[in-house]
């Protein structure tokens, strides 16, 4: 599914990713953990196509196609989704308007017809009920005045509607209380299937108690320095990253 091969990325002349290689299989949930500044968010932005990052070498392949050759909107149409650590606010754009425009733009890019209003409303209603998103939130401008938990629920609602092939969750547990964490995790788990992959970036075991990873990778100084099963996350929770930071030096 997703293959990152010897990826080197810099910003403003500073190397952030330094020969990173990673593979995520179909149906797999891969978690990345690592200290601040190790390049985790940079990896998520490069996969999604955020401008401003200079890829000096390497590849990011989705089903064999190099995503680095495609603009961000084309990557989205190919099925790439990024849930941000800090979702942005868009004043003046109602959440429902944003959701409908996003979904239909994706469909048009794939040669599909726009959804009818009744069908769109049905899909939103079903997904929003599962994620505890009330109708008042959907009428408000996107993320404006939302709590951290509300913003993350709206992002998972977007993901549910867009039905991506590969989703990157960049510290989606940031700012969530226990109830919001459970609701968001249930939304993610509902989308797990043998054809979809997830890359979950987090600092904390608590998210992985709800979203069970198949594999855990440790990232330090711009590359993967260790990989293992879910027990590796427990080790990191207990001992921290010190040993791996030394290994990356």
UniProtKB/TrEMBL annotation:
Family of the protein in this entry: Belongs to the ABC transporter superfamily. Ycf16 family.
SMART domains referenced in this protein's UniProt entry, alphabetically: AAA
Pfam families for this protein: ABC_tran
Keyword field contains Nucleotide-binding: yes
Alphabetical list of InterPro entries matching this protein: AAA+_ATPase (IPR003593), ABC_transporter-like_ATP-bd (IPR003439), ABC_transporter-like_CS (IPR017871), FeS-cluster_ATPase_SufC (IPR010230), P-loop_NTPase (IPR027417)
GO molecular function, one term: ATP binding
Organism superkingdom: Bacteria
All residue ranges annotated as the ABC transporter domain in the record: 2-246
Taxonomic lineage of the native organism: Bacteria, Pseudomonadati, Pseudomonadota, Alphaproteobacteria, Hyphomicrobiales
Protein's UniProt name: Fe-S cluster assembly ATP-binding protein
ATP-binding as UniProt keyword: yes
Keywords from the named record: ATP-binding, Nucleotide-binding
